[in-house]
Design a protein that fits this description.
Shape: elongated
Distance between the termini: 80 Å
Helix content: 40-55%
Largest sheet: 6 strands, mixed
Bound molecules: manganese (II) ion
Number of helices: 30
Structural class: alpha+beta
Number of strands: 21
Radius of gyration: 40 Å
Length: about 725
């Protein structure tokens, strides 16, 4: 293949096209691929020139032909995409980049659903349809030269071609390419059957040629007699379609009669129907074999009339009737809609429009298209805006909702993988679990039995499967903790009255008590105690009503307990201000050590029998706690919560000082509950305020307001162990 042939071929359909860029690109690839050879031993440059020539056979535009020449430079030579951009401009650089990206993905699975996903992935990655067309040219030439590769590679590439690229060529309506790709794949995948069919077809070649010539003559005469001029030809079907026929219909080679397809090309659509009438009048049509793809085009916009008749020698004859335009579409598919103007100006726009029109036709003409959204999405320019296609390490293609992360991927693979998902690598690189996956990414999940789903995952997981599984896990985890806490509390309190929990379980007594409270089993009962919905006292009364002293004893304990967190309980009788992993109705109190305020990040600690203590996240106290007992809690953003805090203000002891301070506090909207002022030995005043505030922001503004006052020396939050201001 010489440059001149490519230039001649493109000038054939784009008259006056500037050949200079082609010469430049040819020199560029000769320079960069210099010294490289193909498996066949030929210089590498033969491959890219053949691919460019194929692109002109599809009558692609100049940018596409340039891209075909350059398509392997970025992947296989020292040339970069920036070099391409500088030398040939942005549009060509974009196309080359697209082809390079497609070349990097390869397909291994055999399952049909996998193949469909992979085809979608390729379509999604090749957002410009020209990228896919160039890729198909590339694959066609690679298939033509496949015999030089090792057997395992031949089989892999042939299978991929049969599963992926031939169907894509078909979907894009490029018939000759689809047939050629099928036959080439077939030859490498089933060499024996291929050789047999080829041989049998060749054996009777002379006989068949004679037969074809006679039938062509007969049809031509019938047409001429009826005043129709047409071009009639006949040829053997391609080997793979013969093989498919043998397979699907369970026939031997000799039992297949319609090995030859005759084609009649007539000037107009009217002539097509007239020619059909002539054929049916001359020979008996076989019922059920007539198809009108003119009135009802195929999804890939193929149009033709098909019929099978009992022919001249009593054999079945398959005939296709169409116009030259329909023939062009059948051979070149989507590319047949490219139109070129003399000057090239506006060509791009009109091509884009035609491309869209073609796709629109596709959508509108085929009502029972299995997935119309697919093509509607294509018309919009983004093929699959709602999906992202990624690889598993095994090479399976997985379709996930757009925006999916490794966590979504992990839960898609298996719930267990999701639950223990500790890290992820994408294309070999470590990424955060919140990483957004892109088309063609290979995703590898690292698991660790210690790892458990975290609430944070809900922030970035997008698939409903992952979301549901994470929530379910968090709920069960809470329940398990509550069960453990409830069991412990009950066991301890039972010991105080001389009872034994295990004995009560064994005797079935506890089950009975649970049932009387409408609870399914003991675990449910423990959970209720753990959540604070039931007290152990209520249970003990039911278990041993005979022990009267117990009540008193437990009552005493209760008082002590109440005293411990009474101050919090008094202010926060309304518990709706806190969410414990979405659960409300739990007993909780705010820890004295850090006194969290709305807006602070929180962590909950399941105390032994005293409900949940709520600390600021990072509070030093919590570091010594058993991590198994820590749970996620958050402010309930729907509820306005008031929290009580104490402020100590050191000031000069001037007249009106206290009034000024009170006024400043009230001005922020906060509610001052108590105030206590005392003189210090050095003649200053220490004022302690109990204030009900609703957020840290409000507290900050109170402090700022106080600090601005004349005579205020220091403002600090009381009972703050960290010694800071708040
Ligand atoms: Mn290539």
């Amino acid at each position: 293949m010489r440059l001149q042939e490519i230039v001649a071929s493109i000038q054939d359909y784009i008259p006056g096209v500037d050949a200079e860029p082609l010469r430049k690109a040819y020199a560029f690839v000769r320079h960069h691929h210099q010294g490289q050879t193909r498996a066949s031993g030929e210089p590498y440059v033969t491959h890219v020139t053949e691919v460019a020539y194929l692109a002109t056979k599809l009558r692609l535009d100049l940018d596409s032909v340039l891209t075909a020449l350059l398509h392997d430079t970025v992947e296989d030579t020292d040339a970069t995409i920036n070099n391409i951009r500088e030398e040939f401009g942005e549009p060509v650089a974009k196309l080359v980049d697209g082809v390079t990206k497609l070349s990097k993905v390869n397909f291994q699975s055999r399952a049909e659903q996998q193949a469909e996903n992979f085809r979608k992935m390729l379509l999604a990655m090749a957002s410009d349809i020209r990228v896919l067309l160039i890729k198909l040219c590339d694959r066609t030439h690679n298939m033509r030269t496949l015999e030089f590769l090792s057997e395992s590679r031949r089989i892999r590439i042939a299978q991929e071609t049969l599963d992926i690229y031939a169907p894509l060529a078909h979907r894009l309506g490029i018939n000759w390419m689809k047939s050629e790709l099928e036959d080439l794949s077939f030859r490498h995948l089933k060499p024996d059957v291929y050789a047999m069919i080829k041989d049998r077809v060749a054996q009777k070649k002379k006989e068949r040629d004679k037969y074809i010539a006679s039938v062509v003559k007969l049809i031509e005469r019938e047409l001429t007699d009826n005043g129709i001029t047409g071009d009639v030809s006949g040829r053997s079907k391609h080997f793979y379609s013969i093989y498919r026929k043998m397979e699907t219909q369970g026939l031997d080679f000799d039992e297949i009669y319609d090995l030859i397809a005759f084609r009649v090309i007539v000037p107009t659509t009217m002539d097509c129907y007239s020619a059909l009438g002539v054929v049916h009048a001359a020979w008996k049509p076989i019922p059920g074999r007539f198809k009108d793809y003119i009135a009802m085009p195929k999804p890939n916009s193929y149009q033709s009339l098909h019929t099978t008749v009992i022919g001249p020698q009593g054999t079945r004859v398959e005939i296709q009737i169409r116009t030259p335009e329909m023939h062009d579409v059948a051979e070149r598919g989507i590319a047949s809609h490219w139109v070129y103007k003399e000057k090239g100006e506006g060509a791009e726009a009109s091509n884009a429009q035609l491309q869209l029109a073609w796709l629109k036709d596709l959508v509108e003409s085929e009502k029972n298209l299995t997935d119309p959204h697919e093509f509607l999405a294509m018309v919009k320019g983004d093929l699959f805006p709602e999906e992202v296609f990624v690889f598993s390490p095994r090479g399976d293609v997985i379709a996930l909702k757009y925006g999916a992360t490794p966590v979504d991927f992990a839960f898609h693979i298996h719930s267990e993988v999701g639950r223990n998902c500790a890290g992820a690598r994408v294309n070999g690189q470590q990424v955060p679990l919140s990483y957004k996956l892109s088309n063609g990414d290979t995703v590898e999940i690292q698991t660790n039995k210690q790892q458990k789903p975290s609430k944070d995952w809900l922030e970035f997981a997008v698939t409903s499967k992952a979301q549901q599984r994470i929530r379910a896990y968090l709920r069960s985890e809470e329940r398990e903790k509550s069960i453990a806490v409830g069991r412990e509390v009950l066991s301890k309190d039972l010991r105080k009255v001389g009872e034994n929990l295990n004995k009560l379980i064994k005797s079935g007594k506890l089950q009975e008590v649970g049932e009387s409270l409408g609870l399914r089993d003991e675990e449910a009962l423990f959970a209720e105690i753990g959540y604070g919905k039931l007290t152990s006292k209520q249970i003990i009364r039911k278990v041993c009503p005979q022990v009267s002293a117990i009540d008193e004893k437990l009552a005493r304990e209760q008082t002590t307990m109440e005293r411990i967190f009474s101050s919090a309980a008094r202010v926060f009788r309304d518990r709706s201000g806190i969410k414990v992993n979405g659960l409300d109705d739990v007993v909780f109190r705010f820890a004295k050590c850090c006194e969290p305020l709305p807006g602070d990040e929180l962590v909950g600690y399941i105390t032994r029998g005293r409900g949940i203590a709520i600390h600021k996240r990072g509070c030093p106290q919590t570091l010594s706690f058993d991590p198994q007992r820590l749970i996620s809690v958050d402010w309930d953003s729907d509820a306005k919560t008031q929290r009580m805090i104490r402020l100590r203000v050191l000031s000069t002891d001037r007249v009106g000082m206290l009034a000024d301070m009170s006024q400043s506090i009230s001005a922020t909207g906060a509610n001052m509950v108590t105030v206590h002022a005392s003189a210090t030995p050095d003649g200053k005043a220490m004022n302690t305020f109990e204030i009900s505030v609703e957020s840290t922001d409000q507290l900050s503004s109170i402090i700022r307001a106080l600090e601005k006052l004349d005579g205020v020396i220091r403002v600090e939050r009381a009972s703050d162990h960290r010694g800071g201001r708040y």
